[in-house]
């Protein structure tokens, strides 16, 4: 498990680094043979995820396989052939579904290893059961190393392209324009505070507050029956900080106002971006044809 965890962390880092390189943000000149090859998963995989499917079929198949693998390991360790073979039957069914759902990945699985597990279990050779289960696990790890981060980004991250949020004038705008406006308001407040233009800072704070209120109304698009995610980022604590900001601007407390803006940038902007933007940007880089 630790080996897989480290591999996943390294691959995710490489994926994000490749985005930086592709946009020309790196100051280091890469060697011709140092490019990173990101494998895109077969398009047929979309059939087994929402919205093309009513259920997250692929994801739940992976969950079942993980549970079944653990059950086989534990019962093999207990030398419990009856329960081990029960879970082996379930595992074999779901393992073989991989190539049925995604024919391009037929070479990723090794059904003969499952047959070997059954044979070793029948012979009560639990040592070789464990050895063979490790070999099966390697087939899982190899595929995950190649595709798991990309699949997560493409099929398990939200698509905000159809999301509409009203601006301060009540006109609908897309998420990119909404974020640009919020960034503009944050910087305008800080510029005005730095130059002693308190009235401009106060006016912009009111627009900023309204824009955040409009943004919060969009959270229910994903968090349908859960108030906590909205409350954590755009809830009472944020509202109180903005009220305190308005009060300090009116009193001419520049340093305190600047400090509050820094807190808002961390607890609202950075917190939201860390949750939503990183994986969204990765998704967009993998699906350039989706960009408008």
From TrEMBL:
Signal peptide: 1-27
GO molecular function, one term: iron ion binding
A GO biological-process term: electron transport chain
Keywords: Signal
InterPro entries (alphabetical): Cyt_c/b562, Multihaem_cyt_sf
This protein's record includes keyword Signal: yes
Keyword Signal applies: yes
Name of the featured protein: Uncharacterized protein
Originating species: endosymbiont of Galathealinum brachiosum
């Amino acid at each position: 498990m630790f080996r897989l965890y480290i591999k996943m962390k390294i691959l995710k880092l490489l994926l994000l680094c490749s985005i930086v390189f592709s946009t020309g943000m790196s100051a280091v000149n890469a060697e011709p043979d140092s490019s990173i090859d990101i494998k895109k998963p077969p398009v047929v995989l979309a059939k087994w995820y929402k919205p093309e499917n009513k259920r997250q079929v692929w994801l739940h198949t992976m969950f079942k396989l993980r549970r079944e693998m653990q059950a086989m390991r534990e019962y093999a360790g207990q030398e419990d052939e009856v329960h081990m073979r029960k879970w082996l039957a379930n595992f074999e069914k779901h393992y073989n579904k991989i190539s049925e759902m995604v024919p391009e990945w037929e070479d990723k699985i090794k059904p003969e290893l499952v047959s070997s597990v059954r044979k070793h279990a029948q012979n009560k050779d639990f040592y070789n059961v464990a050895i063979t289960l490790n070999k099966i696990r390697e087939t899982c790890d190899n595929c995950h190393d190649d595709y798991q981060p990309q699949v997560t980004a493409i099929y398990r991250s939200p698509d905000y392209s159809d999301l509409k949020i009203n601006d301060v004038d009540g006109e609908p705008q897309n998420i990119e324009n909404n974020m640009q406006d919020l960034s503009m308001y944050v910087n305008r407040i800080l510029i005005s505070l730095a130059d002693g233009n308190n009235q401009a800072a106060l006016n912009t704070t009111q627009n900023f507050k309204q824009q955040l209120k409009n943004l919060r109304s969009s959270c229910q698009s994903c968090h349908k029956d859960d108030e906590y995610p909205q409350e954590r980022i755009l809830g009472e604590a944020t509202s109180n900080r903005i009220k305190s900001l308005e009060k300090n601007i009116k009193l001419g407390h520049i340093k305190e106002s600047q400090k509050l803006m820094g807190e808002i940038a961390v607890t609202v902007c950075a917190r939201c971006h860390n949750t939503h933007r990183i994986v969204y940007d990765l998704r967009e880089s993998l699906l350039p044809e989706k960009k408008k």
